[in-house]
Amino acid sequence: MRKVPLTESLRIIGRGTRNWVSDRPLVVSFEVTDACTCFCKHCDHGGPRDESRNLRPSDFPRYMEALRPCVVQVSGGEPLMRPDLTEIVRNIQSGNGLPYTILVSNWSLMTEQRYLELREAGIDQFSVSLDFPDDRHDDFRVHPGLYAHLEGLIPKLAALGHDDIVLNSCITSENVGEINAIADTARAWGVNLCYSAYSARRTGCRDYLLNSPEQLDMLNRGFDRVEQRRDGTNWIVNAPSTLAATRRYFEQASAPGCKAGLRFLVVTADGALQPCSMQFGKYKLEDRARMVEEFTRDNKCDECYVSIRSYLDKTFPQLLRENVREFLSVKAR
């Protein structure tokens, strides 16, 4: 994946340091809609929802000024369902390279024109969900033709050379045997890959957890092979420490010590703050400190190890070592 230019990297590091010391979030995830084009088996979103109370593009600067994150995720539901998404992205940006902005999407509605528009508006990274390296992806997401759409569009956009597309593969009991086949797909399409871990907390369904020694063995063999294939590029986005922690999460069926609400948080489509997308207590923007005090300080939840958490479940020096080494550059964008 492309390296972040030097001046932008220094701004991110500077703000990250200040936020860590002052207990501001490093990452904020704006769930800009609850509606979705898919009905994924491992998700509690799907189909149309009431959009009448969604934040407007002009609402976002107030959240950015109050929270001042280093990194923003723009997600949903399916964010591409919002016709004003480009305007939302522009209102998130500060004009000085901050925040580093990631669009999390299933790409069912992505086109080349929309990709270029969003990139120009300020999206730094396009995170695209992929559960299987073939048409089983359609079945898992209940969206016929989705895999063929991705297979046609992603290599075409990757060939433009911006190096900003990352496949995100959530590991479940259904696809744990496909870890390296999905890596092969990312290589073939010319894009990068990030693994995340399924949590039953979202839907209550434990069937997609790794529930047997055989499945854990497939996970470990898959990650062993991934580590052997790792090279000098950022093709595998997960740091070795993140893959190791993902193994522990599945082996122990838990991951204590979560800092949701403090190091990261969610802004819902209607503007409420939540500690994460799977903790549903809502707070006003002005009550973030109370959310940290009531939830984070005594948080006992150990039921997930999703991507946004896995990046931040580390000491600040470790975060700097792992991310600066991979992404700092003197190259212009």
Report what the structure shows.
The structure is a single chain. The relative contact order is 0.15. The strands form two sheets. An eight-stranded mixed sheet has the order 7-6-5-4-3-2-8-9. It has a two-stranded parallel ribbon with strand order 1-10. The protein is globular. β4, α4 and β5 (125-129) form a beta-alpha-beta unit. The protein has helices spanning 6-22, 60-67, 85-92, 112-121, 136-141, 146-158, 179-189, 213-229, 240-252, 288-294, 307-312, 316-327; strands spanning 4-5, 27-31, 71-75, 100-105, 125-129, 165-171, 192-197, 264-267, 273-274, 328-329. With 333 residues, it is α/β, with parallel strands linked by helices. Mean pLDDT is 91; it is low at 329-333. α1 (6-22) runs antiparallel to α12 (316-327) and α8 packs antiparallel against α9 (240-252). The protein has a single domain, classed as Alpha-Beta Barrel (TIM Barrel), CATH 3.20.20.70.
Figure out the total of helices: 12
CATH class: Alpha Beta
Secondary-structure class: alpha/beta
Total beta strands: 10
Number of domains: 1
- Major sheet, described briefly? 8 strands, mixed
Please name the CATH topology: TIM Barrel
Summary, kept brief:
The chain has helices at residues 6-22, 60-67, 85-92, 112-121, 136-141, 146-158, 179-189, 213-229, 240-252, 288-294, 307-312, 316-327; strands spanning 4-5, 27-31, 71-75, 100-105, 125-129, 165-171, 192-197, 264-267, 273-274, 328-329. It is α/β, with parallel strands linked by helices and 333 residues long.
